[in-house]
Amino acid sequence: MSRRPSPNRAGSDRPYPVRKRSNAVERKGVAYVRGVVEDSNCVFKEIDRASDYGHDAFVLLVDDEEVTPVEIALQIKAGRSFCTLHNCSFVASQAHLNFWAKHGLTTIGVVYDPDVDSAWWIDLREAAKARRQGIGGSTISLPKSEWNRFDAYGFVKVLLPTLLGHAPRIDLEDALRWASNSDFDTHDVGVRVLLARYKQAPETWEAIFREFGVRGAQSSFGVFLGLIRIMGHHDEGYYSNEIPWRVRTPRQAQIMAFGKSEVVNLLKFVDDQGFERGAPGYGLFAIVPAMPDGLMILADIAVDQAVDVEVRDLAIQMIGIHDQDPHWWSLWTPTRQDAATR
After folding, report:
1. pTM for this structure?
2. Cα separation, 153 vs 249, whole angstroms
3. Residues 100, 91: Cα–Cα separation, whole Å
4. In CATH, what is the architecture of 21-156?
5. With the C-alpha atoms ordered 152, 68, 168, 183, is the resulting torsion angle positive or negative?
6. What is the pLDDT of residues 4-40, one digit of tens each?
7. How far is it, in rounded angstroms, from Cα 192 to Cα 213?
8. Confidence grade of residue 244 (pLDDT, cut at 50, 70, 90)
9. What secondary structure letter does DSSP report for 83?
10. How far apart are the C-alpha atoms of 248 and 229, rounded to whole Å?
11. Which helix or strand (DSSP H or E) is residue 128 part of?
12. What residues contact 20, with CB distance under 8 A and at least 6 apart?
């Protein structure tokens, strides 16, 4: 008695060709990305699969109705297997990492989650540069955050201006909300937008000081930069009258009243360049000399064994700079004019 052959994984016993469900999801992902791009008036140029060597499409960026000379490439992934509740990820070969890292165009990776009908993006060229020194492939991971959401709002307001070299165009309300977000990258983008687009708004500086008070040294570098700029520092982008003095003056007084914990957190932003001109640490001369008790606070930090040794060493270095040239130090003490006359 003959036995009926059992079906195999390839489905070779089926009477008709097979179309895997993953193909439909893949096409849905491409269609979603195309829709976002074309709805923004940019030009989407899909690549034939026979010519796909690491890019699925190219996009010519159009800013409102102005066709710019900037073109980018897209690598699109779609499917539940690439997504979790809070993250997306996919495996890239070493060959693809080299390709994206060295390609003349910026490559943006987009992962589409069919369960929520949305997508998120990452700069694959930068991600590949950070990973291509390894051996073999690498997992590219990206968070599902507000700042990198690939939808109508995120593409037009965040990704498009960023690719064109501008600050994201999110409104003040969203920038404030992002600045207080628990996700660091969203917080960082929100702070940078506040400083770039809304430096005249009192709400910007309320957010900057609040985030420094809550996060301390875990704040975005933009928070540190904002504290320096509100004091006025020529090398750190002194805003002059771009910030109204009714906003600037009370915030300067708040900084001059900083205590030990605030100075410790500020010192933690100093990098390996120390207090060299142009380094982040150089910006502290806009703050510490302006504080009536600045030197006393540094001296307290320098001998406090509960403080990290690196921070204590930086405090000692600042004291040494004062001792070597107290006149130069005094030049950093700003002359405050009556805000009412401004």
Report:
1. 0.84
2. 36
3. 14
4. 3-Layer(aba) Sandwich (3.40)
5. positive
6. 555 555 545 777 555 556 566 788 999 999 999 999 9
7. 17
8. confident
9. B
10. 10
11. helix 124-131
12. none
